[in-house]
Amino acid sequence: MGVVHLVFIFMLVIEISLGQIIIPKKYDGFPLYNSKNKDEGSIMVEAFFDPLCPDSRDSWPPLKQALQYYSPHLSFIFHPFPLPYHSNAYIASLALHIANNLNSSTTFPLLELFYKFQEKFYNDPTFNMSRAMVTDDIANLAISLIGKSYSQAFKAGFQDPQTNEAQKISFKYGCSRGVASTPTFLINGFTLPGAGAAIPFEQWKSIIDPLLKND
Ligand SMILES: *[C@@H]1O[C@H](CO)[C@@H](O)[C@H](O)[C@H]1NC(C)=O
Ligand SMILES: *[C@@H]1O[C@H](CO)[C@@H](O)[C@H](O)[C@H]1NC(C)=O
C-alpha cells in the first residue's frame, strides 16, 4: 500500500470519528445578558476561564469593567475550561453547571466566589483530601451562595450524568477552538493573542474601540 493510500485511509478514519461528535442542543457556555445588550450589532466576547486558575481570576475584574463600560455593545459568554493540571477545577466547573441549572442568576456570583476562595482548592492544600471531601467543600461553598433550600439538589447535581455531559461539551468546545490555556478570549469568534494572561482594562479599550468606529 502506497503512502497516498495510507493518507487516504487516515483521512477517512478522521472523517468517521468527526461524524460521531455530538452536537449540543444549544450554544455552549453561560451568557451574561443585561436587558439591553441583545442587539444584533453587538460584539461577541467569549472567555474560557478555569474557575481555579489565578490568571483567569485576575482577568475577570478588568473584563467585567469593560463589559459595563461598553454596555450595551458587548455580549458575553463564559465557557468553563478546567485545566487538567488543576485537579479540582473539573469539580468546580461541574458546580458552575449545577448552579446555572438551579438558578442561572447565581452562575457569575459563584464564579466570583471561586475566585475569592480558589487557593483553598489548589492542588497542594487538597493533596490529602479525597475527591468526595473536595466535592463536599465546593458544594458547601456554592450552597452558601445559592441558598440552603438547594442543598440536596445541589449535591445531587454532581451525580447527575447531565452535569457531566454539559461540562464535557464545554471542554470539547474549548478544544475545538484550540484552547490550551486560560484565560483565552474570542472576539466575534477570533482568538485574541496572549492567552493565559489577564488583559488590563486599557488594553480592552484598545481592542474594542476600533470595532465600534463607523468607517
Ligand atoms: C436566584 O438567585 C438570585 C440571585 O442570588 C436571587 O435573587 C433569586 O431570588 C434566586 N431565585 C430563586 C428562585 O431561588
Ligand atoms: C498529607 O499527609 C502526609 C502524611 O500524613 C503529611 O506528611 C503531609 O504533610 C500532608 N500534606 C498536607 C498538605 O496536608
SSE blueprint:
Blueprint: H1 3-18, E1 30-32, E2 43-49, H2 54-69, E3 74-80, H3 89-102, H4 107-117, H5 131-146, H6 151-157, H7 161-176, E4 184-187, E5 190-191, H8 201-212
Parallel strand pairs: 2-3
Antiparallel strand pairs: 1-3, 2-4, 4-5
Protein name: Thioredoxin-like protein
Organism: Dioscorea alata
Keywords:
215 residues, alpha+beta, Glutaredoxin, 5-stranded mixed sheet, 5 strands, 50% helix, globular, binds 2-acetamido-2-deoxy-beta-D-glucopyranose
Question: What does this protein look like?
Answer:
This protein has one domain: Glutaredoxin. It is α+β, with helices and mostly antiparallel strands and 215 residues long. Strand 2 (43-49), helix 2 and strand 3 (74-80) form a beta-alpha-beta unit. It has a five-stranded mixed sheet, sandwiched between helices. It has helices at residues 3-18, 54-69, 89-102, 107-117, 131-146, 151-157, 161-176, 201-212, and strands at 30-32, 43-49, 74-80, 184-187, 190-191. The chain binds 2-acetamido-2-deoxy-beta-D-glucopyranose (2 copies). Residues 124-125, 127-128 line the site of one 2-acetamido-2-deoxy-beta-D-glucopyranose.
Largest sheet: 5 strands, mixed
Low-confidence stretches: none
Taking the alpha carbons of the first and last residues, their distance comes to 57 Å
Q: Tell me what the CATH architecture is.
A: 3-Layer(aba) Sandwich
Q: How big a fraction of the residues is strand?
A: 5-15%
CATH superfamily: Glutaredoxin
